[in-house]
Structures are given as structure tokens and as C-alpha cells.
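stage 2 :: seqdesign
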């Protein structure tokens, strides 16, 4: 039970066990802090917004520190005068069928966004190519002063940046599987790390790898899988550098390989975990959407995770993300083991 301002006034034993906290640690705290693990000052928590409006609501969300997803219902409770004085919150873990349904709608939404993005990208691509080409012709044809040369070079640079974004949009929208062959995922991770080891060492970031005790392989496009892993490593590096400005023992990325069994189909599980800034639980359902970015303007396009999600789905795999603000971010990849 919570007040309309979001302060918890009563809690049952099941919630305490799920939150792994005592009653004294929960009573009197803000509901967002307990349920979502906190939020960023510049982002609204939808749960708190629902409470302010005293609106009955059911949402699918994650709970900090717990695996899986939950259905979270909000029910205003009125007193004898007809006024809302308390609000009842009930969390229920989603069943496997419900999780499949959530994942289906999420994938359908991304597919629709992908089609729209591809259409926009094609329309933008032609004029951008023309702008870059005309700028190059001017640069090659005329004897310009340094200021003119600098201006044209900037036009070409910004044009190339837009062209890169359109290529990423088309890549996100098209299921271009490419060459699939037996691939050792450990080898893909090692090759990805080889490309960024210098940057990680420079930033004082340690990489801890827990390799599997068994030999296995997956049927995959090596290059595309490497693109996904590099994106996750880059995001972890960004989060760690934002949290730790210097050296710290927690400035590390853990890459853990596990075998798993999902619905009697063998899956290879790879976990990327960092202890950086983390993400609010309330935005996790949006992180795979195109153009959704938590980075400041100019530092990210918001396409990296959406493209990664599409690539993993192309490989008949699953991609999950769990995070708690200022504690950790964990990305879990499941890929079918080759047969």
C-alpha cells in the first residue's frame, strides 16, 4: 500500500522477500526506489505519474535484482468520503506464455518501426548522396580559399554522418542474414575485444571472462555477431567511464558464457555485465526501440541496441536487458547451439 505521493505505508512478506529487504528498509521509502531501483532526475518514472493521477493501471516491468518480468497492477482505494487516500500495488510474475506474448508484441512493434525507418532512410539517402557529390565537385573544380575548403569539408563530413545513419536504419529494417557457418562464440568475443583492448586498457577497464567448461558452437554470421558484441562493450565502456572518472576495482566488464535449456531447445547464453551508471527500470522496455538513447545529444544515435536486437532475432535468439540505476547493467543473449 502506498500514499498518492508514492510513499510506501504497508508491505506484505512476499514483497519483502522479492525485494530482499526488511520492513524497516521499505516502509517510508518512495515506491520508485523500491520497485524500479531509483530513477534519473531528468526522466519521469511512469509508475509515479500513474500514482499522481490515481489512475488504475497494469504494466509489464522488471523488478530490480530479480530475473524475469512482472505484471504490476495499480488500484486506487477510496475512503468513505470517496477520496483516494491509499493505492494498492500488486506484482505478479509473468508466466512463460505471457512472456512470449510480450516478446511477440515487442517484435511486431519493432518490425513496424523498421519498415517506417527503411522508407524514411531511402527517401533521405538520395538527396544526401547528391549533396555530398556536389560538395566534392565544388572542392575539386574551384580554387577556394581555406574558409571555403573548410566549409565544404564540413558539409561532406556531416553528409557522411547522415548517410551512416540511413545505412544503419536500412540494416535494422532488413533481415540480411549474410553468411552463416559454425562459429565458436568465445572466438567472436575474443576477436571483438582485440579491436578495443587498447581503449579499455587506456580507461583502466578490466575484462573478466568466464568461459564454458564445454566445447560448443552456434550457426551464425561471425561479422554480425561481432558487431553486436562490440556495441555491448562500447556501451559498457561509456557507462563505466561516466561513473568512475579514474581507476576503481569495480571498473570492469564481466563476460560470462553458460549453457542453458529453454523449452527443451539447447541455447548458448552469453552475459555482458558492467557496474557502471545503470539504467532506470522504467525505461528498459524502450531501450531496443530505434532512436531511443539515454546518451546526451550528439553522443549516440539510439540505433545500436535496436540493430543488435534485430541481429539476434535473425539468428533465432533472444536478447534481454536488466539494470539498476548506479549499480549494474546486464545484457543476456541466448543463441541456439549448432547441431
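stage 2 :: out
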Amino acid at each position: 500500500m502506498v500514499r498518492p505521493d508514492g510513499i510506501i505505508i504497508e508491505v506484505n512478506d512476499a514483497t519483502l522477500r522479492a525485494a530482499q529487504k526488511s520492513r524497516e528498509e521499505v516502509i517510508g521509502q518512495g515506491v520508485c526506489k523500491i520497485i524500479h531501483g531509483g530513477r534519473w532526475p531528468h526522466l519521469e518514472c511512469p509508475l509515479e505519474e500513474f500514482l499522481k493521477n490515481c489512475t488504475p493501471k497494469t504494466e509489464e516491468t522488471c523488478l530490480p535484482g530479480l530475473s524475469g518480468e512482472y505484471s504490476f497492477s495499480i488500484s486506487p482505494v477510496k475512503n468513505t468520503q470517496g477520496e483516494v487516500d491509499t493505492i494498492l500495488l500488486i506484482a505478479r510474475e509473468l508466466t512463460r506464455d505471457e512472456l512470449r506474448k510480450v516478446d511477440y508484441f515487442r517484435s511486431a512493434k519493432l518490425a513496424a518501426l523498421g519498415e517506417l525507418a527503411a522508407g524514411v532512410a531511402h527517401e533521405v539517402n538520395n538527396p544526401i548522396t547528391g549533396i555530398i557529390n556536389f560538395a566534392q565537385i565544388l572542392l575539386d573544380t574551384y580554387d577556394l580559399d581555406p574558409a571555403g575548403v573548410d566549409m565544404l569539408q564540413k558539409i561532406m563530413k556531416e553528409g557522411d554522418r547522415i548517410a551512416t545513419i540511413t545505412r544503419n536504419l536500412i540494416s535494422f529494417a532488413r533481415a540480411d542474414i549474410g553468411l552463416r557457418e559454425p562459429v565458436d562464440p568465445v572466438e567472436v568475443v575474443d576477436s571483438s575485444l582485440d579491436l578495443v583492448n587498447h581503449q579499455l586498457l587506456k580507461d583502466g577497464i578490466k575484462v573478466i571472462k568466464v568461459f564454458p567448461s564445454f566445447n560448443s558452437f552456434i550457426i551464425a554470421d561471425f561479422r554480425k555477431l561481432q558487431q553486436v558484441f562490440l556495441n555491448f562493450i562500447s556501451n559498457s565502456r561509456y557507462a563505466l567511464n561516466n561513473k568512475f572518472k579514474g581507476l576503481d576495482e569495480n571498473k570492469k566488464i564481466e563476460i560470462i558464457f553458460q549453457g542453458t535449456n529453454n523449452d527443451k531447445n539447447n541455447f548458448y547464453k552469453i552475459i555482458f555485465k558492467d557496474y557502471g551508471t545503470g539504467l532506470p527500470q522504467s525505461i528498459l522496455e524502450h531501450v531496443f526501440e530505434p532512436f531511443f538513447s539515454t546518451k546526451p545529444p550528439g553522443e549516440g544515435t539510439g540505433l545500436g541496441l535496436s540493430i543488435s536486437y534485430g541481429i539476434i532475432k535473425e539468428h533465432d535468439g533472444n536478447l534481454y536487458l536488466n539494470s539498476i540505476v548506479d549499480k549494474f547493467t546486464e545484457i543476456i543473449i541466448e543463441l541456439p547451439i549448432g547441431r
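stage 3 :: structure notes
- The chain has a mean pLDDT of 79.
- Residues 96-141 form the longest helix (46 residues).
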